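Hi C.,

You asked whether I'd gotten around to modeling the 108-residue construct. I have! Everything is below, sequence then structure, no commentary in between.
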Amino acid sequence: MSEKNDFIYDEDDSVKFIQNYLPQELKGKFSNDDINYIVDLIYDYYDTKGYLSDSKDEDTDIEIDEEELVNYVIKNAQKDGMGKYTPEEITFIVQGELEYCDSINMFD
């Protein structure tokens, strides 16, 4: 296994991290299931963009359009009947997920 894949991603840890990352006014607004659902949409977005493809050059930097990602999550959550979220709410969850990934050295 390469060093690139030595990180251990844990969904439960990710949710806890994001719950703690959220600002006070959003604490309690999202259940753990809500956050898991939103994180799944984040990775669906990455997949549609080809960011998760094994054929990607590992040395290529990926630039994520955060606004596009947030809009993707909002649109799909509404389509799936999961609720209406504001861009600000989703941005905090996206940033929390990115911080969690950084904390486990997922992008190193």
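If it helps when you're writing up: The CA atoms of residues 46 and 52 lie 6 Å apart.

Thanks,
B.
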